Amino acid sequence: MSISSSTNLRRSPISATLERRLEAVEHTRVNNVSFEQTKEKIRKMLEKVELSVSAYDTSWVAMVPSPSSQNAPLFPQCLNWLLENQHEDGSWGLDHPSCKKDMLSSTLACILALKKWGTGERQISKGLQFIELHSASVTDETIEKPAGFDIVFPGMVEYARDLNLVVPLGSEVVDAMIQKRDLDLRRESFSRGREAYLVYVLEGTRKIQDWDLVGKYQKKNGSLFDSPAATAAAFTQFRNDGCLRYLSSLFQNFEAAVPTVYPFDQYARLSVIDTLESLGIDRDFKNEIRRALDETYRCWLRGDEEIRLDLATCALAFRLLLSHGYDVSYDPLKPFAEESGFSNTLEGYLKNTVSVLELFKAAQSYPHDSALKKQCLWTKHYLEMELSNSPITSVRDQYLKREVEDALSFPHYASLERLDHRRKLLRGSCVEKNTRVMKTSYCFPNVCSSDILKLAVEDFNFCQSIHGEEMKRLDRWIVENRLQELKFARQKLAYCYFSGAATLFSPELSDARISWAKGGVLTTVIDDFFDVGASKEEMESLIHLVEKWDLNCVPEYCSEKVEIIFSVLRDTILETGEKAFIYQGRSVTNHIVKIWLDLLKSMLREAEWSSEKSTPSLEDYVENAYVSFALGPIVLPATYLIGPPMSEETVGSPEYNQLYKLMSTMGRLLNDIQGFKRESAQGKLNSVSLHMVHDQDNGSEEEIIECIKGLAERKRVELQKLVLEEKGSVVPRECKEAFLKMSKVLNLFYRKDDGFTSQDLMSVVKSVMYEPVTLQDESLT
């Protein structure tokens, strides 16, 4: 729903001015030719992600002899490609600053292919000169190594000897490499993961003579690990029909050169979707993303090996499909609930951090499954160890380290979208994500990370300009309604607006953000009113005015404070009701009145407990406190303004009310834990102090706090499960997400203290609200 279509016929003069400004900005944005061209390029990425060709793998395919003649190549087009695609410096391979060993490996493989078929003397000579010039890189441990380099490179040097070709590395270097390789191959310890690894680097070992061992790892498409190089080596050695079928199929999609892994479409496309979502620009590509995920889901249901047999792809597909409401089972990931399951895979043997990171993210996305809880624990520990022990040998390593740090420092349940977007934008995170290394480097040529980054920066700043206008409007609203005159009340507009803008950030959610922020401001004022600013008479008077809700007569106020609060409360309820009518097609004002009335009555009950110095049971306290925590007037009215219609039956359903109760109970418990000492000193009730009073086991303060932390965590997990549940759900997913977004706000706010007394959080608020993002890398501007 656009801003204009969702706000017609009911704007105040201030709101209408804001609307005109936003429409002008949006008009400029939409009509920016470059902007639209960038979006079109990204749409094409989602339709078909291209994979770079690999000189290394192409050379091994080129070495495959024809079944009809051992003296002729089966795929001569690959040989011709090698002849035509040598770099000026004599090398082959993806030219990247951190890929020296990869280029050496690719160059040697290409030289072997040319030498085998007795062609390309000039190219061979130039290639050998490149290897000699960069020979020091072979033994430089500070340079990133492709997977299997220590096995494959010495193996190729030996193969060169068989072809009477001298590789200019020096005899000491060659002997040391081969000795190290042989020691590694003779190691007695032999796991399933190591066995898979030796088959994966089959082209470098030439030692495995047992097809039964190799065949265990052959996929339905005939390949070994979707690796053209390994499959070419297997066919050359074993003449397996499945291997030949796979190699031949490559040229249905590639003319003369092959990639280092194929197929890889699913992971590539899912990575683009994940990048768009992580930068907050996925809403411009909803249709394309839905089509891509529909295809992924069909593959998931069929059990396609491209998804099921690749850990990173399987975990990423699970996470994205789950978050988009598809009915997916965790079963394919169950073997990796324990670290031992991961260790027995190729990825585990290679210590593939990307796969572990994806498993960790997948486990966080569905925490109520016991197997996923185990997976979350071991992957977290694994990633922590990787951070402390793994050396950084490339820019990609630095990028991956930052990704791991973010995943550990900003857990899924306490991560606000706009903070994540800003952090990734400032780092230019998606740029290095485009180049990866397996046996050799590869990239997605048509996935232009700089285009994605530029679009995301422009979008972030565009949304930020809207948020700035809304904040000005809210500042005026506070002054016009005299809220600043209530000296007892905390002024927390920035926090209140930020909590909505950091999650409901897109332009079309303006009404929901405004309602969210006003609800936050007013609940803070009313909380302080009942806490320190009102007499019993004033409390009861305010409740009576809301309960009566007579708009046809002039209210009688017992004090100026009550007049100020009721007046702004009445106007805000009516304004929200008016807006909601446009979205819902029915009046919801009475429900909004009830939400506020429930809050006021719960606050009065707490005030009475305090004044009478009575001690309620823990059950009575929690039953009242989840309402008095005051999230109802913030979140519930906003759900009417998000877009999807909700019937009276929907908002009265057990599901809707359980979403509210779980969110609020979790928030109340987190608040009580952090505010326990301060509130105890003030003589206020708190679940921690009440637990101490009623605890029959005489547990210590630390034990009781841990118990309540566990209860809060269980409520969070239940809430996440309910939001993700699709079967039998009557609440629209977009509306359910609002409860989950608020739970993330709460987990962030209460990680250190009670949120409203946090100083460092204010700098975060300012950065998201007022500081535009600029591209740091000049090459992207």
From TrEMBL:
Its EC number is 4.2.3.19. Its cofactor is Mg(2+). One of its GO terms (biological process) is gibberellin biosynthetic process. The keyword Flavoprotein does not apply. Residues 482-716 form the Terpene synthase metal-binding domain. GO terms for molecular function: ent-kaurene synthase activity; magnesium ion binding. GO terms for cellular component: chloroplast. Keywords: Lyase, Magnesium, Metal-binding. Residues 210-408 form the Terpene synthase N-terminal domain. The keyword Ion transport does not apply. This is ent-kaurene synthase.
